[in-house]
Amino acid sequence: QVQLVESGGGLVQPGGSLRLSCAASGFTLDNYAIGWFRLAPGKEREGVSCISSSGRSTYYAPSVQGRFTISRDNGKNTVYLQMNSLKPEDTARYYCATESLSSCPVLAPRANYWGHGTQVTVSS
């Protein structure tokens, strides 16, 4: 069964950090770009970051540039999103997805695999 599974979310104070993981099962991530998206109540889905299959190309939304870092460990079949200096406006459910292509961007309407998401809440 092909799956993407996110983990690492939680409750953190403003200024804190979290590292999200996106693990694949049933297929190998090596050949695919992976995107991170987030969805907050009352807001549109936002593409947060993307990493190419090789890891050499990355993309960040302006809202997270300089605070978030995407990386991948193909040996572990996992993509990570390191989130630092978190703000209350980062509160959302975070999803990883792929279009089963090698390059960024991953466009949400064309993504064929999605995880179920992990909740990130930034609050004091």
Structure overview:
With 124 residues, the chain is mainly beta. It has strands at residues 3-7, 10-12, 18-25, 34-39, 46-51, 58-60, 68-73, 78-83, 92-98, 113-114, 118-122. The termini are far apart. The mean pLDDT is 96.
How much helical structure, as a percent, in the residues?
A: under 10%
Shape: globular
Count of helical regions: 0
Radius of gyration: 13 Å
Oligomer: single chain
TL;DR of this structure?
The protein is mainly beta and 124 residues long. It has no helices and 11 strands. The protein has strands at 3-7, 10-12, 18-25, 34-39, 46-51, 58-60, 68-73, 78-83, 92-98, 113-114, 118-122.
Please give a handful of descriptors for the protein shown.
7-stranded mixed beta sheet, mainly beta, 124 residues, 4-stranded antiparallel beta sheet, single chain, 0% helix
Fold blueprint:
Layout: E1 3-7, E2 10-12, E3 18-25, E4 34-39, E5 46-51, E6 58-60, E7 68-73, E8 78-83, E9 92-98, E10 113-114, E11 118-122
Parallel strand pairs: 2-11
Antiparallel strand pairs: 1-3, 3-8, 4-5, 4-9, 5-6, 7-8, 9-10, 9-11
